[in-house]
Write a structure and sequence with these properties.
The chain is of the alpha/beta class and 310 residues long. It folds into two domains: 106 residues, Nucleotidyltransferase, domain 5 (2-Layer Sandwich), CATH 3.30.420; 188 residues, 2-Layer Sandwich (Nucleotidyltransferase, domain 5), CATH 3.30.420. Helices cover 45% and strands 21% of the residues. It has twelve helices and eleven strands. A six-stranded mixed β-sheet has the order 8-7-6-9-11-10, with helices on both faces. A five-stranded mixed β-sheet has the order 3-2-1-4-5, with helices on both faces. It is globular and about 50 Å long.
């Protein structure tokens, strides 16, 4: 059976098409992402503005054509933060069905965090101690404390990069006082995370997809070669490399970031906020190890589908 999984994120709509074999293994046929920036202009008003609304629908129409080309038999489409928190999110889901013929299911932040965990678990081997998994989206950021066998704690926070970018509207380049405002806000909003880490100490940070992909790509282009990331589901960051790339990002203008190899255009603005979040977490919990999982929500959903009766 050929299935498609579509992750309707705040910044991007991601698609994964696989062929499920009779022995519960699968073959990857196609994957892609389309920048939709659903939160543009309305994310903190909990509203999808007309232009990004239509961008999202057009992306789904494109995916519909792609799925027909690959003879997809079953579609699993899931909406996350921007759609579930928008007053017109239900309208978007209805338009997706009417105009693109795609049934979209809204999932909670808790469910999103759970699926991210399953995705990460399929990408890498956990250490003996608990890890802190972070998925920085556009609308929300999920934090999960887990090991190979168990999720100890998970929570979704309205701290996505697009949401914070619109809320704080930092200068180009970001000023020190603006950085401090954002980190003060993170400190305030993430108190439940601080409490959770006290109960369940963590040994490392695992960044799932998105912004962490960009950080790894930028490091590979600047200090090594892009080949080090090819066909890998995991990347171990050298913390010195991260600090160097962090300083470059935080001290750059948008124009300078547009020229940086490994940074895709849709993340040029948000990488500043994402980098601040990553550094804040590393410093707050004195973490010396960080890894990238290239698998995230859609691979977690695939895991769930594979373990169910299709």
């Amino acid at each position: 059976m050929r299935i498609a999984i579509i992750d309707l994120g705040t910044n991007t709509f991601n698609i994964l098409i696989v062929k499920i074999n009779h022995i519960k293994s699968y073959t990857n046929l196609y994957q892609s992402k389309i920048s939709v920036k659903l939160g543009e202009g309305g994310i903190n008003k909990n509203y999808i503005e007309p232009v990004p609304f239509q961008r999202g629908i057009e992306a789904l129409k494109t995916y519909k054509e792609t799925m027909e080309r690959f003879y997809v038999e079953k579609v699993f489409a899931f909406a996350t933060s921007a759609i579930r928190s928008a007053s017109n999110g239900k309208e978007f889901v209805e338009a997706a069905k009417r105009e693109a013929g795609i049934d979209v299911t809204m999932i909670s932040g808790e469910k999103e965090a759970e699926l991210i965990y399953y995705g990460v678990r399929n990408a890498l081997k956990f250490s003996d101690k608990a890890s802190l998994i972070i998925d920085i989206g556009g609308g929300s950021t999920e934090f999960i404390i887990a090991d190979e066998n168990k999720v100890y704690w998970k929570q979704s926070f309205l701290l996505g990069a697009a949401r914070l970018l619109e809320m704080f509207q930092p200068s180009d380049k970001i000023k020190v006082e603006e950085q401090n405002k954002i980190t003060d806000y993170l400190n305030q909003e993430l108190q439940p995370l601080f409490e959770a880490v006290k109960k369940h100490p963590v040994a490392e940070l695992i960044g799932s997809s998105g912004s962490f992909d960009s950080l790894a790509e930028m490091i590979a282009h600047k200090y090594y070669t892009p080949q080090i990331l090819k066909k890998k589901t995991e990347y171990v960051f050298d913390m010195h490399d991260f600090e160097r790339i962090y300083e470059i990002i935080i001290n750059s203008t948008k124009e300078e970031r547009m020229q940086m190899k490994g940074l895709v255009e849709m993340r040029v603005d948000m990488i500043v906020i994402s980098s601040l979040i990553v550094r804040f977490v590393l410093q707050s919990f004195h973490l010396k190890n960080m890894r990238l999982s290239t698998y995230a929500l859609k691979e977690g959903m695939l895991n769930e589908i594979m373990n169910s009766k299709l």
